[in-house]
Amino acid sequence: MENLKGNIEKIPSKIINFVESRIGILPTIIETEYYKLEATKEIVEKNNMIWSDKFYDGENITHNYGLVKFNDQEVYIFFEKRKDDYTYKFYILCNEKNIDSIVFYLDKFKEYRTIK
């Protein structure tokens, strides 16, 4: 396990450990392309925000990072804001049996995907 590379290195270990403690196993991680701010807003509004890191510029609050619990399932979405713009990358953390349902859920955000 010490030599794991890839998505597990892109997510803070505290997030991985938290999700692992909730689902009972080391989570499968699905990384997405970048999505526009609207996709992040909808995910945050319709699910349970567990934790976030925000920035206040004197007028608006912007999420830099966050962890959302997806509905009542043992699926978590960690997101991070790209520097210098308002697009976000999602990392889905779940067990293998939930992959199909989360891919189906993400398909509804196709219009918000960016190509960068």
Looking at this protein, list some descriptive labels.
alpha+beta, five-stranded antiparallel beta sheet
Note down, in words, how this protein is organized.
The chain is α+β, with helices and mostly antiparallel strands. Helix content is 29%, strand content 35%. The longest helix is centred in the first third of the chain and has 11 residues, at 13-23. The chain is built from four helices and five strands; from the N terminus they run ααβαββββα.
Topology:
Elements: H1 7-10, H2 13-23, E1 28-36, H3 37-46, E2 48-56, E3 61-69, E4 76-81, E5 87-94, H4 99-107
Antiparallel strand pairs: 1-5, 2-3, 3-4, 4-5
Order of helices and strands: HHEHEEEEH
Total strands: the figure is: 5
Q: End-to-end span in angstroms? A: 31 Å
What does the largest sheet look like?
A: 5 strands, antiparallel
Q: What share of residues are in beta strands?
A: 35-45%
Contiguous helical run count: 4
Strand order of the largest sheet: 1-5-4-3-2
Which structural class do the helices and strands define?
A: alpha+beta
Gyration radius (Cα, Å) is 14 Å
Concise summary:
The chain is an alpha+beta fold and about 120 residues long. The chain contains four helices and five strands. It is globular, with a radius of gyration of 14 Å.
